[in-house]
Design a protein that fits this description.
The structure holds 2 protein chains of 2 kinds.
Chain A (H helix, E strand, L loop, with lengths): L1 H7 L2 H41 L3 H16 L2 H11 L9 H26 L3 H9 L4 H16 L1 H14 L11 H12 L3 H30 L2
Chain B lengths: L1 H7 L2 H41 L3 H16 L2 H11 L9 H27 L2 H9 L4 H29 L13 H12 L3 H27 L5
Helix pairs in contact in B: 2-5, 2-8, 2-9, 3-5, 4-5, 5-7, 6-7, 7-9, 8-9
Classes of the chains: A mainly alpha, B mainly alpha.
Chain lengths: 223, 223
Protein backbone atom coordinates (compact mmCIF):
# COMPACT_ATOMS: atom_id res chain seq x y z
CA UNK A 1 0.00 0.00 0.00
CA UNK A 2 2.80 2.41 0.93
CA UNK A 3 4.54 1.46 -2.28
CA UNK A 4 1.45 2.35 -4.30
CA UNK A 5 0.97 5.70 -2.56
CA UNK A 6 4.62 6.59 -2.91
CA UNK A 7 4.70 5.54 -6.56
CA UNK A 8 1.44 6.88 -7.93
CA UNK A 9 0.41 9.60 -5.47
CA UNK A 10 3.75 11.07 -4.44
CA UNK A 11 3.06 14.59 -3.17
CA UNK A 12 6.71 15.66 -3.19
CA UNK A 13 6.96 14.85 -6.88
CA UNK A 14 3.69 16.61 -7.52
CA UNK A 15 4.83 19.75 -5.68
CA UNK A 16 8.00 19.82 -7.73
CA UNK A 17 6.38 19.13 -11.08
CA UNK A 18 3.05 20.92 -11.04
CA UNK A 19 4.31 23.90 -13.13
CA UNK A 20 4.88 21.43 -15.96
CA UNK A 21 1.34 20.17 -15.65
CA UNK A 22 -0.10 23.69 -15.64
CA UNK A 23 1.87 24.64 -18.76
CA UNK A 24 0.66 21.48 -20.42
CA UNK A 25 -2.93 22.11 -19.44
CA UNK A 26 -2.72 25.61 -20.93
CA UNK A 27 -1.42 24.23 -24.22
CA UNK A 28 -4.17 21.58 -24.27
CA UNK A 29 -6.78 24.30 -23.71
CA UNK A 30 -5.30 26.41 -26.51
CA UNK A 31 -5.50 23.46 -28.88
CA UNK A 32 -9.15 22.88 -27.94
CA UNK A 33 -10.06 26.55 -28.25
CA UNK A 34 -8.75 26.59 -31.82
CA UNK A 35 -9.71 23.11 -33.04
CA UNK A 36 -13.30 22.84 -31.75
CA UNK A 37 -14.61 26.02 -33.51
CA UNK A 38 -12.60 25.25 -36.68
CA UNK A 39 -14.05 21.75 -36.76
CA UNK A 40 -17.60 22.94 -36.18
CA UNK A 41 -17.41 25.59 -38.91
CA UNK A 42 -15.78 23.20 -41.40
CA UNK A 43 -18.34 20.50 -40.55
CA UNK A 44 -21.21 22.92 -41.01
CA UNK A 45 -19.83 23.93 -44.43
CA UNK A 46 -19.59 20.25 -45.40
CA UNK A 47 -23.20 19.64 -44.35
CA UNK A 48 -24.48 22.73 -46.19
CA UNK A 49 -22.65 21.72 -49.37
CA UNK A 50 -24.37 18.35 -49.10
CA UNK A 51 -27.79 19.93 -48.67
CA UNK A 52 -27.61 21.68 -52.07
CA UNK A 53 -28.66 18.25 -53.41
CA UNK A 54 -26.43 18.70 -56.42
CA UNK A 55 -25.39 15.10 -57.16
CA UNK A 56 -21.66 15.47 -57.99
CA UNK A 57 -21.19 17.80 -55.02
CA UNK A 58 -22.96 15.41 -52.64
CA UNK A 59 -20.75 12.56 -53.84
CA UNK A 60 -17.67 14.68 -53.26
CA UNK A 61 -18.84 15.49 -49.74
CA UNK A 62 -19.44 11.81 -48.94
CA UNK A 63 -15.98 10.89 -50.26
CA UNK A 64 -14.43 13.66 -48.13
CA UNK A 65 -16.27 12.57 -45.00
CA UNK A 66 -15.63 8.85 -45.40
CA UNK A 67 -12.01 9.43 -46.39
CA UNK A 68 -11.18 11.32 -43.22
CA UNK A 69 -13.30 9.04 -41.06
CA UNK A 70 -11.26 6.09 -42.35
CA UNK A 71 -7.94 7.43 -41.08
CA UNK A 72 -6.94 7.11 -37.47
CA UNK A 73 -6.31 10.73 -36.38
CA UNK A 74 -2.77 9.80 -35.30
CA UNK A 75 -1.96 8.58 -38.83
CA UNK A 76 -3.24 11.83 -40.31
CA UNK A 77 -1.27 13.84 -37.78
CA UNK A 78 1.99 11.99 -38.44
CA UNK A 79 1.45 12.14 -42.19
CA UNK A 80 0.99 15.90 -42.10
CA UNK A 81 3.66 16.55 -39.50
CA UNK A 82 6.42 14.45 -41.08
CA UNK A 83 5.20 14.47 -44.67
CA UNK A 84 4.72 18.15 -45.45
CA UNK A 85 8.34 19.21 -44.77
CA UNK A 86 9.44 16.61 -47.36
CA UNK A 87 7.67 18.59 -50.08
CA UNK A 88 9.00 21.89 -48.81
CA UNK A 89 5.87 23.01 -46.95
CA UNK A 90 7.09 24.22 -43.59
CA UNK A 91 4.30 25.07 -41.19
CA UNK A 92 4.64 25.58 -37.43
CA UNK A 93 3.98 22.55 -35.19
CA UNK A 94 0.87 24.10 -33.70
CA UNK A 95 -0.60 24.70 -37.17
CA UNK A 96 0.21 21.14 -38.25
CA UNK A 97 -1.65 19.70 -35.24
CA UNK A 98 -4.60 22.05 -35.79
CA UNK A 99 -4.77 21.19 -39.50
CA UNK A 100 -4.66 17.41 -38.93
CA UNK A 101 -7.18 17.31 -36.11
CA UNK A 102 -9.51 19.79 -37.83
CA UNK A 103 -9.55 17.69 -41.03
CA UNK A 104 -10.31 14.64 -38.92
CA UNK A 105 -13.01 16.17 -36.77
CA UNK A 106 -14.69 18.21 -39.53
CA UNK A 107 -15.73 14.93 -41.14
CA UNK A 108 -17.44 13.81 -37.93
CA UNK A 109 -19.08 17.19 -37.32
CA UNK A 110 -20.09 17.26 -40.99
CA UNK A 111 -21.79 13.89 -40.75
CA UNK A 112 -23.62 14.95 -37.57
CA UNK A 113 -24.87 18.24 -39.06
CA UNK A 114 -25.89 16.42 -42.25
CA UNK A 115 -28.05 14.02 -40.23
CA UNK A 116 -29.46 16.99 -38.33
CA UNK A 117 -30.37 18.93 -41.47
CA UNK A 118 -31.98 15.82 -42.97
CA UNK A 119 -34.11 15.42 -39.84
CA UNK A 120 -35.91 18.70 -40.57
CA UNK A 121 -39.11 18.10 -42.57
CA UNK A 122 -39.29 19.53 -46.10
CA UNK A 123 -42.28 21.66 -45.12
CA UNK A 124 -39.96 23.85 -43.06
CA UNK A 125 -37.90 24.54 -46.17
CA UNK A 126 -40.88 25.23 -48.32
CA UNK A 127 -42.52 27.51 -45.76
CA UNK A 128 -39.33 29.50 -45.22
CA UNK A 129 -38.56 29.81 -48.92
CA UNK A 130 -42.11 30.85 -49.73
CA UNK A 131 -41.93 33.75 -47.26
CA UNK A 132 -39.10 35.08 -49.41
CA UNK A 133 -36.05 33.92 -47.44
CA UNK A 134 -33.05 32.98 -49.60
CA UNK A 135 -31.33 29.60 -49.39
CA UNK A 136 -28.64 30.68 -46.95
CA UNK A 137 -31.10 32.69 -44.86
CA UNK A 138 -33.37 29.65 -44.62
CA UNK A 139 -30.35 27.62 -43.53
CA UNK A 140 -29.24 30.17 -40.99
CA UNK A 141 -32.53 31.15 -39.36
CA UNK A 142 -34.75 28.11 -39.83
CA UNK A 143 -32.90 24.88 -40.52
CA UNK A 144 -29.58 24.99 -38.64
CA UNK A 145 -31.02 26.12 -35.27
CA UNK A 146 -33.53 23.24 -35.28
CA UNK A 147 -31.01 20.76 -36.68
CA UNK A 148 -28.41 21.63 -34.06
CA UNK A 149 -30.96 21.05 -31.31
CA UNK A 150 -31.88 17.65 -32.73
CA UNK A 151 -28.28 16.46 -32.80
CA UNK A 152 -27.11 18.21 -29.61
CA UNK A 153 -26.09 14.92 -27.91
CA UNK A 154 -23.98 13.88 -30.91
CA UNK A 155 -22.37 17.32 -31.07
CA UNK A 156 -21.51 17.16 -27.37
CA UNK A 157 -20.15 13.65 -27.76
CA UNK A 158 -17.94 14.66 -30.67
CA UNK A 159 -16.65 17.72 -28.84
CA UNK A 160 -15.65 15.44 -25.96
CA UNK A 161 -13.78 13.25 -28.47
CA UNK A 162 -11.99 16.30 -29.93
CA UNK A 163 -10.77 17.39 -26.51
CA UNK A 164 -9.49 13.88 -25.81
CA UNK A 165 -7.86 13.58 -29.21
CA UNK A 166 -5.63 16.63 -28.57
CA UNK A 167 -3.59 14.25 -26.39
CA UNK A 168 -2.25 12.78 -29.66
CA UNK A 169 -0.26 15.98 -30.14
CA UNK A 170 2.11 14.59 -27.49
CA UNK A 171 3.34 12.09 -30.09
CA UNK A 172 4.77 14.90 -32.23
CA UNK A 173 6.39 16.55 -29.19
CA UNK A 174 3.76 19.26 -28.78
CA UNK A 175 4.15 20.40 -25.14
CA UNK A 176 0.58 19.70 -24.08
CA UNK A 177 -0.65 18.03 -20.89
CA UNK A 178 0.25 14.42 -21.68
CA UNK A 179 3.62 15.32 -23.22
CA UNK A 180 4.75 17.41 -20.26
CA UNK A 181 3.50 14.77 -17.83
CA UNK A 182 5.73 12.26 -19.63
CA UNK A 183 8.65 14.70 -19.42
CA UNK A 184 8.03 15.19 -15.70
CA UNK A 185 7.85 11.42 -15.24
CA UNK A 186 11.22 11.08 -16.99
CA UNK A 187 12.81 13.77 -14.81
CA UNK A 188 11.61 12.31 -11.51
CA UNK A 189 11.60 8.57 -12.32
CA UNK A 190 8.13 8.53 -10.83
CA UNK A 191 4.76 8.07 -12.58
CA UNK A 192 2.85 10.49 -10.30
CA UNK A 193 2.75 13.19 -13.02
CA UNK A 194 1.01 10.73 -15.36
CA UNK A 195 -1.64 9.96 -12.76
CA UNK A 196 -1.99 13.69 -12.10
CA UNK A 197 -2.48 14.36 -15.82
CA UNK A 198 -5.15 11.66 -15.95
CA UNK A 199 -6.83 13.25 -12.92
CA UNK A 200 -6.80 16.65 -14.65
CA UNK A 201 -8.39 15.18 -17.78
CA UNK A 202 -11.00 13.46 -15.63
CA UNK A 203 -11.90 16.60 -13.65
CA UNK A 204 -12.06 18.58 -16.89
CA UNK A 205 -14.19 16.13 -18.84
CA UNK A 206 -16.29 14.36 -16.24
CA UNK A 207 -19.01 17.09 -16.20
CA UNK A 208 -19.27 16.74 -19.97
CA UNK A 209 -19.61 12.95 -19.69
CA UNK A 210 -22.38 13.30 -17.09
CA UNK A 211 -24.19 15.89 -19.21
CA UNK A 212 -23.91 13.57 -22.18
CA UNK A 213 -25.36 10.62 -20.28
CA UNK A 214 -28.36 12.72 -19.30
CA UNK A 215 -28.90 14.02 -22.82
CA UNK A 216 -28.72 10.52 -24.27
CA UNK A 217 -31.14 9.16 -21.71
CA UNK A 218 -33.60 11.99 -22.30
CA UNK A 219 -33.44 11.36 -26.04
CA UNK A 220 -34.35 7.70 -25.53
CA UNK A 221 -37.08 8.50 -23.03
CA UNK A 222 -38.61 10.97 -25.47
CA UNK A 223 -38.92 8.46 -28.26
CA UNK B 1 5.00 17.31 -59.02
CA UNK B 2 8.13 15.18 -59.48
CA UNK B 3 9.10 16.02 -55.93
CA UNK B 4 5.76 14.77 -54.63
CA UNK B 5 6.04 11.52 -56.58
CA UNK B 6 9.63 10.98 -55.44
CA UNK B 7 8.79 11.62 -51.79
CA UNK B 8 5.37 10.04 -51.41
CA UNK B 9 5.15 7.39 -54.16
CA UNK B 10 8.68 6.06 -54.58
CA UNK B 11 7.89 2.57 -55.91
CA UNK B 12 11.31 1.15 -55.10
CA UNK B 13 11.08 2.21 -51.46
CA UNK B 14 7.51 0.93 -51.32
CA UNK B 15 8.52 -2.49 -52.64
CA UNK B 16 11.36 -2.72 -50.11
CA UNK B 17 9.14 -2.02 -47.10
CA UNK B 18 5.98 -3.78 -48.24
CA UNK B 19 6.67 -6.90 -46.09
CA UNK B 20 7.05 -4.72 -42.96
CA UNK B 21 3.78 -2.94 -43.63
CA UNK B 22 2.04 -6.26 -44.28
CA UNK B 23 3.23 -7.71 -40.98
CA UNK B 24 1.97 -4.54 -39.30
CA UNK B 25 -1.34 -4.97 -41.11
CA UNK B 26 -1.79 -8.50 -39.75
CA UNK B 27 -0.90 -7.39 -36.22
CA UNK B 28 -3.35 -4.47 -36.42
CA UNK B 29 -6.11 -6.92 -37.36
CA UNK B 30 -5.21 -9.23 -34.43
CA UNK B 31 -5.22 -6.32 -32.01
CA UNK B 32 -8.48 -4.92 -33.39
CA UNK B 33 -10.28 -8.28 -33.16
CA UNK B 34 -9.03 -8.82 -29.61
CA UNK B 35 -10.24 -5.34 -28.59
CA UNK B 36 -13.67 -5.76 -30.18
CA UNK B 37 -14.32 -9.19 -28.63
CA UNK B 38 -13.16 -8.16 -25.16
CA UNK B 39 -14.79 -4.70 -25.21
CA UNK B 40 -18.21 -5.76 -26.47
CA UNK B 41 -18.36 -8.80 -24.14
CA UNK B 42 -17.31 -6.84 -21.05
CA UNK B 43 -19.71 -4.03 -21.94
CA UNK B 44 -22.61 -6.44 -22.26
CA UNK B 45 -21.69 -8.18 -19.00
CA UNK B 46 -21.62 -4.82 -17.19
CA UNK B 47 -24.99 -3.78 -18.65
CA UNK B 48 -26.55 -7.10 -17.55
CA UNK B 49 -25.13 -6.71 -14.04
CA UNK B 50 -26.48 -3.16 -13.97
CA UNK B 51 -29.96 -4.43 -14.84
CA UNK B 52 -30.06 -6.24 -11.46
CA UNK B 53 -29.97 -2.77 -9.83
CA UNK B 54 -27.68 -3.63 -6.92
CA UNK B 55 -26.71 -0.21 -5.52
CA UNK B 56 -22.98 -0.55 -4.73
CA UNK B 57 -22.33 -2.50 -7.94
CA UNK B 58 -24.18 0.13 -9.95
CA UNK B 59 -22.02 2.89 -8.53
CA UNK B 60 -18.90 0.95 -9.43
CA UNK B 61 -20.13 0.39 -12.98
CA UNK B 62 -21.09 4.04 -13.46
CA UNK B 63 -17.69 5.10 -12.13
CA UNK B 64 -15.91 2.69 -14.47
CA UNK B 65 -17.93 3.92 -17.44
CA UNK B 66 -17.45 7.61 -16.66
CA UNK B 67 -13.73 7.15 -16.04
CA UNK B 68 -13.05 5.39 -19.32
CA UNK B 69 -15.27 7.76 -21.28
CA UNK B 70 -13.55 10.83 -19.85
CA UNK B 71 -9.89 9.81 -20.17
CA UNK B 72 -8.15 10.00 -23.54
CA UNK B 73 -7.29 6.42 -24.66
CA UNK B 74 -3.66 7.41 -25.18
CA UNK B 75 -3.39 8.53 -21.55
CA UNK B 76 -4.79 5.18 -20.36
CA UNK B 77 -2.46 3.23 -22.62
CA UNK B 78 0.58 5.19 -21.46
CA UNK B 79 -0.33 4.67 -17.81
CA UNK B 80 -0.72 0.91 -18.39
CA UNK B 81 2.57 0.72 -20.24
CA UNK B 82 4.82 3.24 -18.49
CA UNK B 83 3.37 3.62 -14.97
CA UNK B 84 2.40 0.07 -13.93
CA UNK B 85 5.96 -1.33 -14.25
CA UNK B 86 6.95 0.92 -11.29
CA UNK B 87 4.93 -1.41 -9.04
CA UNK B 88 6.17 -4.53 -10.81
CA UNK B 89 3.29 -5.03 -13.25
CA UNK B 90 4.84 -5.50 -16.70
CA UNK B 91 2.06 -5.80 -19.27
CA UNK B 92 3.99 -5.41 -22.51
CA UNK B 93 2.89 -3.17 -25.36
CA UNK B 94 0.32 -5.46 -26.96
CA UNK B 95 -1.51 -6.27 -23.71
CA UNK B 96 -1.38 -2.62 -22.58
CA UNK B 97 -2.93 -1.47 -25.87
CA UNK B 98 -5.46 -4.31 -25.82
CA UNK B 99 -6.64 -3.66 -22.27
CA UNK B 100 -6.67 0.14 -22.61
CA UNK B 101 -8.80 0.18 -25.76
CA UNK B 102 -10.82 -2.82 -24.59
CA UNK B 103 -11.82 -0.98 -21.39
CA UNK B 104 -12.68 2.16 -23.36
CA UNK B 105 -14.86 0.18 -25.76
CA UNK B 106 -16.46 -1.66 -22.82
CA UNK B 107 -17.36 1.67 -21.18
CA UNK B 108 -18.99 3.08 -24.31
CA UNK B 109 -20.66 -0.24 -25.12
CA UNK B 110 -22.12 -0.53 -21.60
CA UNK B 111 -23.76 2.89 -21.98
CA UNK B 112 -25.23 1.93 -25.34
CA UNK B 113 -26.49 -1.51 -24.18
CA UNK B 114 -27.94 0.06 -21.05
CA UNK B 115 -29.74 2.72 -23.09
CA UNK B 116 -31.10 -0.10 -25.24
CA UNK B 117 -32.34 -2.04 -22.20
CA UNK B 118 -34.03 1.09 -20.81
CA UNK B 119 -35.74 1.74 -24.13
CA UNK B 120 -37.66 -1.56 -23.99
CA UNK B 121 -41.18 -0.85 -22.79
CA UNK B 122 -41.93 -1.62 -19.14
CA UNK B 123 -44.96 -3.65 -20.22
CA UNK B 124 -42.63 -6.18 -21.84
CA UNK B 125 -40.97 -6.81 -18.46
CA UNK B 126 -44.28 -7.08 -16.65
CA UNK B 127 -45.83 -9.39 -19.24
CA UNK B 128 -42.81 -11.71 -19.26
CA UNK B 129 -42.55 -11.83 -15.47
CA UNK B 130 -46.27 -12.51 -15.09
CA UNK B 131 -46.03 -15.55 -17.36
CA UNK B 132 -43.65 -16.99 -14.77
CA UNK B 133 -40.27 -16.25 -16.39
CA UNK B 134 -37.61 -15.50 -13.79
CA UNK B 135 -35.74 -12.16 -13.92
CA UNK B 136 -32.68 -13.34 -15.78
CA UNK B 137 -34.71 -15.35 -18.30
CA UNK B 138 -36.84 -12.25 -18.97
CA UNK B 139 -33.74 -10.19 -19.55
CA UNK B 140 -32.15 -12.80 -21.80
CA UNK B 141 -35.09 -14.01 -23.83
CA UNK B 142 -37.41 -11.00 -23.95
CA UNK B 143 -35.64 -7.72 -23.26
CA UNK B 144 -32.14 -8.17 -24.69
CA UNK B 145 -33.26 -9.41 -28.13
CA UNK B 146 -35.36 -6.25 -28.54
CA UNK B 147 -32.75 -3.98 -26.97
CA UNK B 148 -29.76 -5.25 -28.95
CA UNK B 149 -31.35 -4.53 -32.30
CA UNK B 150 -31.55 -0.84 -31.38
CA UNK B 151 -27.94 -0.76 -30.26
CA UNK B 152 -26.49 -1.98 -33.56
CA UNK B 153 -25.95 1.38 -35.34
CA UNK B 154 -24.42 3.36 -32.44
CA UNK B 155 -22.37 0.34 -31.42
CA UNK B 156 -20.97 -0.12 -34.93
CA UNK B 157 -19.93 3.52 -35.14
CA UNK B 158 -18.31 3.47 -31.73
CA UNK B 159 -16.55 0.17 -32.35
CA UNK B 160 -15.04 1.45 -35.61
CA UNK B 161 -13.92 4.69 -33.96
CA UNK B 162 -12.23 2.86 -31.10
CA UNK B 163 -10.68 0.22 -33.35
CA UNK B 164 -8.96 3.03 -35.23
CA UNK B 165 -7.24 3.69 -31.90
CA UNK B 166 -5.02 0.67 -32.62
CA UNK B 167 -2.74 3.25 -34.28
CA UNK B 168 -2.03 4.56 -30.76
CA UNK B 169 -0.33 1.25 -29.98
CA UNK B 170 2.64 2.54 -32.01
CA UNK B 171 3.37 4.77 -29.00
CA UNK B 172 3.81 1.74 -26.72
CA UNK B 173 6.13 -0.10 -29.12
CA UNK B 174 3.65 -2.47 -30.74
CA UNK B 175 4.88 -3.07 -34.31
CA UNK B 176 1.53 -2.41 -36.00
CA UNK B 177 0.98 -0.52 -39.28
CA UNK B 178 1.80 2.99 -38.12
CA UNK B 179 4.89 2.03 -36.15
CA UNK B 180 6.24 -0.06 -39.07
CA UNK B 181 5.55 2.85 -41.40
CA UNK B 182 7.30 5.49 -39.28
CA UNK B 183 10.29 3.19 -38.68
CA UNK B 184 10.58 2.55 -42.43
CA UNK B 185 10.21 6.25 -43.11
CA UNK B 186 13.13 7.01 -40.80
CA UNK B 187 15.31 4.29 -42.38
CA UNK B 188 14.55 5.28 -45.95
CA UNK B 189 14.49 9.06 -45.35
CA UNK B 190 11.43 9.04 -47.59
CA UNK B 191 7.72 9.48 -46.89
CA UNK B 192 6.55 6.65 -49.18
CA UNK B 193 6.22 4.10 -46.33
CA UNK B 194 3.82 6.50 -44.59
CA UNK B 195 1.78 6.68 -47.78
CA UNK B 196 1.67 2.89 -47.78
CA UNK B 197 0.60 2.88 -44.15
CA UNK B 198 -2.16 5.38 -44.93
CA UNK B 199 -3.33 3.21 -47.83
CA UNK B 200 -3.31 0.16 -45.53
CA UNK B 201 -5.61 1.97 -43.08
CA UNK B 202 -7.84 3.04 -45.95
CA UNK B 203 -8.11 -0.59 -47.12
CA UNK B 204 -8.93 -1.68 -43.59
CA UNK B 205 -11.39 1.03 -42.53
CA UNK B 206 -13.01 2.50 -45.66
CA UNK B 207 -15.20 -0.62 -46.12
CA UNK B 208 -16.16 -0.51 -42.43
CA UNK B 209 -17.09 3.18 -42.62
CA UNK B 210 -19.21 2.49 -45.70
CA UNK B 211 -20.79 -0.47 -43.91
CA UNK B 212 -21.67 1.72 -40.93
CA UNK B 213 -23.32 4.22 -43.26
CA UNK B 214 -25.48 1.37 -44.64
CA UNK B 215 -26.27 -0.02 -41.17
CA UNK B 216 -27.32 3.43 -40.02
CA UNK B 217 -30.06 3.64 -42.65
CA UNK B 218 -30.99 -0.03 -42.21
CA UNK B 219 -31.52 -0.07 -38.43
CA UNK B 220 -32.25 3.58 -37.65
CA UNK B 221 -31.73 4.36 -33.92
CA UNK B 222 -34.33 7.08 -33.68
CA UNK B 223 -37.91 6.84 -34.95
Amino acid sequence: MDLIVETFFNLDVLREMYPFLLDGLWMTLQLCIVIVPCGIVAGLCVAILFSFRFRPLSWLVIVYVDFFRSFPPLVLLIFIYYGLPFVGVDIPDFAAVVLALTLNTSSYYGEIFRAGIESIPRGQWEAARSTGLGFLQTMRYVIVPQAARNVAPDLTSNTLEVIKVTSLASVVAMPELLRLARVAQGLTYNPTPLIAAAAIYFVLLWPLVRLLSRMERRMIAGR
Amino acid sequence: MDQIVANFFDLEVMARYLPDILSGFVLTIYLAVAIVLFGLALGLALAVVRAFQIRPLNWLIVFFVDLFRALPPLVIMIIFYFALPYVGVELGGFVAAWLALGFVLAAFAEEIYWAGILSVDKGQWEAARSTGLPFFRTLRSVVLPQALRLTIPPLTNRTIAITKGTALASVVAVPEILSQATAAQAFAANTSPLTMGAIAYLILFAPLVTLSRWIETRFAWRR
